[in-house]
Write a structure and sequence with these properties.
Distance between the termini: 26 Å
Number of helices: 6
Largest sheet: 5 strands, antiparallel
Radius of gyration: 18 Å
Structural class: alpha+beta
Number of strands: 15
Shape: globular
CATH topology: Cathepsin B, Chain A
Oligomer: single chain
Pfam family, one: Peptidase_C39_2
Order of helices and strands: EHHEEEEHEEEHEEEEEEHEH
CATH superfamily: Cysteine proteinases
CATH architecture: Alpha-Beta Complex
InterPro entries: Peptidase_C39-like
Helix content: 10-25%
Amino acid sequence: MTNNKTKHLIDVPYINQSEKWPTGCESVTAVMLLHFLQFDIDVDTFIEQCLEKRAFEERAGELYGPDPAMYFAGSPYEEDSMGCYAPVIVRALEKAMQRCGQEDKKKDKNTGNRIPHRPHGDGQEEPGEESSRYEIIDETGKDISDLIDTYIDHGMPVPLWAAINMRDPIVGPKWRLFDSGEEFTWISNEHCMLLVGYDAEKYYFNDPYENNGVIGYEKKVVEDRYRWQHMQAVGVRRLQTGKNPSKSPKFNSITPALRNKNFSQ
């Protein structure tokens, strides 16, 4: 059990999404986590090379778009885009770690010399092996208290879906999914942040929205907004040297029944 009487906070490098990624909260949050793990990647590279994206289309007068559990819906650079769900970020984080590991050399900022990239840990991996030190897990459906016990109390931040400034959720807009033609309902004010700590009253986040920085939100409000966004979160586990993550992490997909469910209860 966690002890909520004192404040627990993980120090994570902060990035403000308002600089150029108005709907890029998921990507900015993921890159903050990668920087915490000492992977050398910027937000633009993450978006352009790791994030799976798909634009909207009009067909016979109806709006068609991607399943946000499969693609980012739109572009993180555009204000009228939507976002994406946890499985997309799981895959993007895996790609980002593999990309960083496959780069043979990195430049030392102080000396200008080229040095091998090293994430957190005592192992001396060869280039290409860094990503094998971590397993990325779709933790959709897990209570925040369990995320605290599993990750935060062990020093690992957690990307978590809630709401912009904890605003009330808004049902809509809607579009038809490309693959199935099924009508999908988006819950607006969706926002992804990096859970970094807690105390007796609040959960604390690196919140990339409008330079919010490290900010605390009331627990009950966060838990409600989290339910509205299908209780989505992404976990990262450090693996012991010599052990490999599962080849195909299990994704908790957003089922059709969940897509239109009222999570306010």
